[in-house]
Amino acid sequence: LHLPAPTDPLLRALHDILRTDPADNRSLDDHGRRIGASARTLSRRLRDDLGLTYPQWRTQIRLHHALILLADGTPVTTVAHHCGWSSASTFIDVFRRTFGHTPGTRPTT
To answer: In whole angstroms, how large is the CA radius of gyration of the chain?
Structure first.
C-alpha cells in the first residue's frame, strides 16, 4: 500500500488529523473549516499534490492504519471500527478489493 505524504501545508495539517484518528468521518467541508480552507481548495490541492480524491486518500490512510493494527494482532472487527468503517463486512470488502485477500488470511507466495 502506497501512502503518499502531502507536501502542501494545508494537506499536511489534514493528514495529521486523519492519521491521529482514521475513524474521523467529518466531511472535507468540516475539515476545511478547522484548518482554514474550503473543501474545493483542499480537493484541488489533493488532486494536484497526490493525484487522489479525498475519499481515495482517506481510504488509503485507513488501510495503512489497519495494516498496522492487524500486524499487532488486533481483531478484524476492532480494526474496522478503529479505522472508520461502519461494519466489519464493509472493511473486509475494501481490504479484499485492495489486497486480493481478506484481512484474516495471509496471501500465498
So the answer is: 14
Helices (H), 26-108: 28-35, 39-50, 54-71, 76-82, 88-99
**19 within a domain of the structure (yes/no):** yes
CATH code for the domain in which residue 18 is found: 1.10.10.60
Domain that holds residue 17: 9-99
Mean pLDDT of the chain: 93
Q: pLDDT tens digit string along 3-25? A: 888 999 999 999 999 999 999 99
Query: What is the reported pTM?
Result: 0.90
